[in-house]
């Protein structure tokens, strides 16, 4: 109870929503939005990639309200009402409605594709069985006896259909990771090929067997076996086209985040642009550090303060552009000492980060030492009085809360870590007997996006912008952009060069030498 009271007293009055922080966040987000030009829209093709609604990769819209939250963790919330300073135009309404229509269209397209594939799969699976059963049902008395040969063929068809069923389930029936804007060309071609193949077999079966009521039942069974064999070969072709073809690296892509310039390199095989975009996004959530717009505000405020000192006066009232540019250049030269300000600001920030990091490390180590003491005391207690990890985390959290909060504020990570998430992580570390260093790893170094809660992510829907068709394959020099609300990923494709490797033969005898010793001595 005392630990809970300490926690409550430590965090009383911490979280408040302020109108200024919300306004600053909305203005910062609006500055990231680039205006769309009419000329650029004609030369570029823009398509949208969405995550499945059943498993959304990204948080809901309520997380936007939490982004403007105060640095503190919340127990109380103050709501501020007033006149809205922002308006929405007809273009925004039209864009929102278009996004809704696109999302509905993507859902319908996905379910339609799954339905077509399921119906075609059932048709393929039951066609050989129908070929064998129809003569037995329609003209059984006229069939020639088959005997042991047909029974062996029956066993062969059964096992081949089982193998085909398992292979089809493993290759095609997977949970989709994302919605792509266009159809997958190879998969569509395989579906068309299977449909034409099964249709041609049914056509031949109807003309040559059903119409004439063929009495050679062994030939009919062998005809069904040939269909199953051909379907197995088509399945092998699907494995080559869908899985094996893209394994060999052929291209190197450089992915650059537009806001902070963080970049990564990846090797890709023969993929279309839309599938390459999916691979880039999957690696982005795993490899890139989480996007933190708060880290960009310092440089922007410094640039704004520098530009605020440049004052240009027009005395004559005319547009003396040359004189204005000269005055701006002179003022810029006078303010050339801004690099000193940047140097001292960064040095002071690093000093404060190191100082608060040291305080945090000491506070966490003391808290974990207290946990060990509590565990030693609990071993002597009755089983009913033992404290669970959640209660232990709540007991030691107030001793480290202030140091952790100051460190997160200094490093501008407070919007990614709530008090509840920290308590859960602390109880997890206590349960698994982890060290203080393992507990601090999440907070001392910014991790990838997947490490944080989904409601803390800054991207929900991605838009693929490419001058080439998104179904076309990767080529050397292609550049496409993946845009979300606050930033974009610029992807530059380069082909891996052809490497010429030659061989040089070295004669083993060339390494041998003879050491001749002379027995001459000095007199």
TrEMBL record:
InterPro entries: VANGL
Family as reported in the entry's similarity comment: Belongs to the Vang family.
Region (Disordered): 1-86
Membrane-related topology note: Multi-pass membrane protein
Keyword Transcription among record annotations: no
Record Pfam families: Strabismus (PF06638)
This protein's name: VANG1 protein
Compositionally skewed regions (Polar residues) per UniProt: 74-86
Protein source organism: Thinocorus orbignyianus
Parts of the chain that traverse the membrane: 111-133, 153-172, 184-204, 224-244
Gene Ontology CC annotations of this record: plasma membrane
Organism lineage: Eukaryota, Metazoa, Chordata, Craniata, Vertebrata
Bias (Basic and acidic residues): 36-45
UniProt signal peptide: none
UniProt keywords, alphabetically: Cell membrane, Membrane, Transmembrane, Transmembrane helix
Biased composition (Basic residues): 19-35
Subcellular location: Cell membrane
Domain of life: Eukaryota
């Amino acid at each position: 109870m005392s630990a809970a009271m300490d926690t409550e007293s430590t965090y009383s009055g911490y979280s408040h929503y302020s109108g200024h922080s919300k306004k600053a966040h909305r203005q910062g987000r609006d500055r990231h939005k680039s205006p769309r030009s009419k000329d650029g829209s004609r030369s570029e093709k823009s398509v949208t990639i969405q995550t499945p609604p059943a498993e959304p990769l990204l948080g809901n819209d309520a997380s936007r309200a939490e982004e403007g939250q105060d640095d503190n963790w919340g127990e109380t919330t103050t709501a501020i009402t007033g006149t809205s300073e922002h308006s929405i135009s007809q273009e925004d309404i039209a864009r929102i409605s278009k996004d809704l229509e696109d999302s509905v269209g993507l859902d319908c397209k996905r379910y339609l594709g799954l339905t077509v594939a399921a119906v075609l799969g059932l048709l393929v699976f039951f066609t050989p069985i129908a070929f064998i059963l129809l003569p037995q049902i329609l003209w059984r008395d006229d069939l020639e006896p088959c005997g042991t040969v047909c029974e062996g063929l029956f066993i062969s068809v059964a096992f081949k259909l089982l193998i085909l069923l398992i292979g089809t389930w493993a290759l095609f029936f997977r949970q989709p990771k994302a919605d792509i804007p266009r159809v997958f060309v190879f998969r569509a071609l395989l579906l068309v090929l299977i449909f034409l193949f099964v249709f041609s077999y049914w056509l031949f079966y109807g003309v040559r067997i059903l119409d004439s009521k063929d009495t050679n039942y062994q030939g009919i069974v062998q005809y069904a076996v040939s269909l199953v064999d051909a379907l197995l070969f088509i399945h092998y072709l699907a494995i080559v086209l869908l899985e094996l073809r893209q394994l060999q690296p052929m291209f190197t892509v450089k992915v650059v985040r537009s806001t902070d310039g963080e970049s990564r390199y990846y090797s890709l095989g023969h993929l279309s642009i839309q599938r390459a975009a999916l691979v880039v996004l999957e690696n982005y959530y795993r490899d890139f550090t989480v996007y933190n717009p708060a880290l960009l505000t310092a440089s922007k405020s410094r640039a704004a303060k520098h530009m605020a000192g440049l004052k240009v006066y027009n005395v004559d009232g005319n547009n003396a552009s040359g004189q204005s540019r000269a005055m701006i250049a002179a003022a810029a030269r006078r303010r050339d000492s801004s690099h000193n300000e940047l140097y001292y600001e960064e040095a002071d920030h690093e000093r404060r980060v190191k100082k608060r990091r040291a305080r945090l490390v000491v506070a966490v180590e003391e808290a974990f030492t207290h946990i060990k003491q509590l565990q030693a005391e609990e071993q002597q207690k009755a089983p009913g009085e033992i404290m669970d990890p959640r209660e232990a985390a709540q007991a030691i959290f107030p001793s480290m809360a202030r140091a952790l909060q100051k460190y997160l504020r200094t490093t501008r990570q407070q919007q990614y870590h709530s008090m509840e998430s920290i308590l859960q992580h602390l109880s997890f570390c206590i349960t698994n007997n982890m060290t203080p260093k393992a507990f601090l790893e999440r907070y001392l170094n910014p991790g990838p996006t997947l490490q944080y809660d989904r409601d803390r992510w800054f991207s929900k829907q991605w838009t693929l912008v490419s001058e080439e068709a998104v179904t076309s394959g990767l080529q050397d020099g292609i550049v496409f952009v993946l845009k979300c609300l606050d930033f974009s990923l610029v992807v530059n494709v380069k082909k891996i060069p052809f490497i010429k490797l030659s061989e040089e033969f070295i004669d083993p005898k060339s390494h041998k030498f003879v050491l001749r010793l002379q027995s001459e001595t000095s007199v």
